[in-house]
């Protein structure tokens, strides 16, 4: 699949296929600097969440950019994604959470709002109450979508089971499912399910939380591809792998060099079929989640 700069959601909106992830970035001055640098080098999607505790800093950074006529950027030029924390699950709490995010982000609408996790805080993974809470949250998002407070709605870390279950209560099916995706966690079945059900897949942890870059996790296939494709870095190979599987990618970065490296991926040549097969074969040897595994959430 040829990577595209945007992916079309089921409601017709065009979402950038490469964005800036901001998980674990909480220092206000750092967050503001990274967001401004990212926009300056070409990013147009900023991914955050209530649980990241950086929405205020992001909102402040964006407000400054929009107020600066020299930037040439307006609110409608930037795609903002945020997410509902597990402690905010349920209709009333979800409604309040979106309004809080709107206030913190200093915006009249959020482009994409996701339920961050299928479980609710304080509930065991096996508890049937998890479904009740996420169902209530979804009904809140559907209402906020109809009100125009959010332009698109979706989920994160949902398995096929969670998505199939939604067909029993959702009037609007998720437009996006954001999940961990990298060669050690290729999500092949879930990716195909989402694509066949018109749900755009967004990959997080594409770089294995930097484990593939810092040497903590070694992939011989990745090393081989970089050796024969000297125009690509390891990060770019991993991002292209996700993009060529039809997913959007939201890598984290803080330095200008890394920001430029990641966003330049769409201007690079495609991975060959052999390259893709080599990375696809990694899971045959060793499969693992580096982040969270939602399979046990009832």
Automatic annotation (TrEMBL):
GO terms for molecular function: oxidoreductase activity, acting on the CH-OH group of donors, NAD or NADP as acceptor. Substrate binds at residue 116. The lineage of its organism: Eukaryota, Fungi, Fungi incertae sedis, Zoopagomycota, Kickxellomycotina. The active site is at 52 (proton donor). CDD domains: AKR_DrGR-like. This is NADP-dependent oxidoreductase domain-containing protein. It comes from Coemansia spiralis. The record marks 83 as: Lowers pKa of active site Tyr. Residues 18-283 form the NADP-dependent oxidoreductase domain. Keywords: NADP, Oxidoreductase. It comes from the Eukaryota.
């Amino acid at each position: 699949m040829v990577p595209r700069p945007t992916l079309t959601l089921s409601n017709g909106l065009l979402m950038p296929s490469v964005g800036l992830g901001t998980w674990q970035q909480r220092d206000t001055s750092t967050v503001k600097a990274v967001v401004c640098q990212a926009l300056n080098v070409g990013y147009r999607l900023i991914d955050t969440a209530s649980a990241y505790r950086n929405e205020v800093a992001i909102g402040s950074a964006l407000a400054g950019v929009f107020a600066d006529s020299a930037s040439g950027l307006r609110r409608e030029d930037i795609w903002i994604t945020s997410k509902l924390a597990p402690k905010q699950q349920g209709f009333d709490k979800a409604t309040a959470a979106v309004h809080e995010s709107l206030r913190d982000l200093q915006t009249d609408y959020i482009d994409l709002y996701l339920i961050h996790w299928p479980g609710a805080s304080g509930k065991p993974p096996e508890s049937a109450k998890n479904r009740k809470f996420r169902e209530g949250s979804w009904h809140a998002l559907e209402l906020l979508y109809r009100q125009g407070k959010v332009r698109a709605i979706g989920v994160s870390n949902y398995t096929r089971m969670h998505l199939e279950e939604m067909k029993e209560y959702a009037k609007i099916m998720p437009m996006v499912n954001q999940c961990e995706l990298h060669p050690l966690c290729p999500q092949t079945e879930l990716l195909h399910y989402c694509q066949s059900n018109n749900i755009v897949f967004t990959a997080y942890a594409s770089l294995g939380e930097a484990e593939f870059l810092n040497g903590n996790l070694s992939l011989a296939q990745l090393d081989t591809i970089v050796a024969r494709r000297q125009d690509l870095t390891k990060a770019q190979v991993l991002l292209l792998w996700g993009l060529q599987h039809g997913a959007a990618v939201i890598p984290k970065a803080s330095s200008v060099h890394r920001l430029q490296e990641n966003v330049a991926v769409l201007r690079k040549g495609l991975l060959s079929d052999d390259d893709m097969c080599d990375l696809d074969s990694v899971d045959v040897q060793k499969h693992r989640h580096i982040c969270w595994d939602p399979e046990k959430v009832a």
